[in-house]
Design brief:
The chain is built from five helices and 42 strands. By secondary structure, the chain is mainly β. It has one domain (90-455): Pectate Lyase C-like (3 Solenoid). A 14-stranded mixed beta sheet has the order 2-1-3-6-9-12-15-18-21-24-27-30-33-36, with helices on one face. The radius of gyration is 26 Å and the shape is elongated.
Length: 459
């Protein structure tokens, strides 16, 4: 503890020098008004689906059947099975290259009766289009799913999966497409950790998950040993984790929206990911992170908007990641860095109006900036004498005060004392002492994200 306070005493020794030069320092930039985040997410209004009014009828190759199973058993590879009405059965499809769809102008429902998997795809190249699959078994340990996919190059499109433990489970097959589906779990199952996941990706390569809407499950999209998966344009809310990576490399997450979850995007024990152009808003549960990087290496986190979360970004035991061009706005804590995450390449981000910009638990000082340009910090003191839009004085968002409080929580009673405020001013203005934490040697004068105020009212 005394070693930490030695840093503080040395910094205090230069406070008078700092105050002597303070007249040249520009005050922190703040928003025009202190308003709450106003976010109107584009959620679909299609959860109370209209019940099919007739008993089920399945047609294939000119024949009619009262059972989906009977129709698919009679079908030949390449046939199309057309369904109308409602069916109560569990169906296994072995015929390859089969299409199962609803008749034009209707949506047929297959109800599993609350047991096991409702629809199991086992022949390769099967397409499921515009069906309503519902009421799987209740046992997450048995992986009960609405649609169980053991079919390479299968396509699940334009469909609905509801009242199921797992929505769509992709089981060790490649090249699957899951596009434009609505997946609604069982809200009554509490806690959410007792539910299954919306889309479960296990040991799959080259799969596409696109434009789906997922709610009331455990995790929206869950990866386990998945490779080269593109997830794009999905919307996920009221979940534990919107997206959850485990042991999955070389995947891309692009243009997704995760809001009102515990965590928006939880990236764990994976490498070579691309996390680009995503939005995480109001993820304020027990963990409350917008983006979590835990044991993540060699990953790109770029152009994401992390707004109104408990923590915008949490980096734990992760190395060699590029964090660039992100908007980190109005979070309780902008960034939490800990457990040896000291080799990150961080530049071009806008850290605006976070209650606290950063907590950095590290023994050394680490630079967060590119060669000549760093990040924008709304509470940094700026001096731009040569008008190159880069401040001449470094900014340290987490230094002696934050390090002391993290190592010795009892010191929090002094967090906003005049002495600690003086230390912060000295560190950020004239960092003559290399105190532990993160320093931006080239903070930006203006935020790269010019439209950040859109989160404070009408867009």
């Amino acid at each position: 503890m005394w070693k930490t306070f030695e840093y503080a005493f040395v910094v205090l020794a230069v406070v008078m020098v700092v105050l002597g030069g303070a007249a040249a320092i520009v005050a922190p930039t703040q928003a025009d008004e202190d308003r709450p985040i106003a976010f109107d997410p584009p959620t679909p209004a299609e959860f109370e689906f209209a019940e099919p009014s007739t008993d089920g009828l399945a047609r294939v190759d000119g024949e009619s059947f009262r059972s989906v199973a009977a129709a698919v058993d009679a079908a030949e590879p390449g046939d199309t099975v057309v369904l109308t009405g409602r069916f109560t059965e569990r169906v296994v499809v072995d015929t390859p290259n089969l299409t199962i769809t609803s008749a034009p102008g209707s949506i047929a429902a297959i109800d599993g009766g609350g047991e096991g998997n409702v629809l199991t795809l086992q022949g390769d190249g099967i397409t499921v289009r515009r069906l309503w699959i519902r009421n799987s078994g209740y046992d997450p340990a048995e992986n009960d799913a609405g649609i169980w996919v053991n079919s390479s190059n299968a396509r699940i499109v334009d469909s609905r999966v509801s009242a199921s433990t797992f929505g769509v489970w992709v089981d060790g097959v490649d090249g699957v497409v899951v596009r434009n589906n609505t997946i609604v779990g069982r809200e009554e199952v509490r806690p959410p950790s007792h539910r299954g996941n919306g889309i479960q990706l296990w040991d799959t390569e080259g799969t596409l998950v696109e434009d789906n809407r997922i709610t009331d499950v455990r995790d929206g999209i869950y990866y386990s040993w998945a490779t080269d998966v593109l997830a794009r344009g999905n919307t996920m809310w009221d979940l534990r984790f919107g997206v959850h990576y485990m042991y999955s490399d070389d995947c891309r997450l692009e243009d997704n929206l995760a809001f009102d979850n515990d965590v928006g995007y939880a990236l764990m024990v994976s490498a070579d990911l691309e996390i680009v152009d995503n939005v995480a808003v109001n993820n304020t549960g027990q963990s409350g992170q917008g983006v979590l990087l835990k044991d993540i290496d060699d990953t790109l986190v770029r152009n994401n908007s992390l707004v109104g979360n408990r923590k915008g970004l949490f980096i734990y035991n992760s190395l060699n990641n590029t964090i660039a061009g992100n908007l980190v706005l109005a979070n309780g804590l902008g960034v939490h860095v800990t457990a040896g995450s000291v080799e990150e390449y961080v530049y071009g981000n806008s850290f605006i109006r976070n209650d606290q910009p950063m907590v950095a638990v590290m023994a050394d000082q680490v630079a967060w900036n590119a060669t000549g340009r760093g990040n924008y910090w709304s509470n940094a003191r700026i001096v731009d004498m040569d008008r190159d839009d880069v401040s001449e004085i470094p900014y340290q968002p987490a230094g002696v005060v934050e390090y002391t409080i993290q190592q010795h929580p009892q010191a929090i009673v002094f967090a906003y004392s005049p002495a600690f405020d003086a230390i912060r001013l000295a560190e950020s203005s004239f960092p003559v002492v290399e105190s532990p934490g993160v320093v931006d040697h080239h903070p930006l004068v203006d935020p790269p994200h010019k439209e950040w105020r859109r989160y404070y009212g009408d867009r």
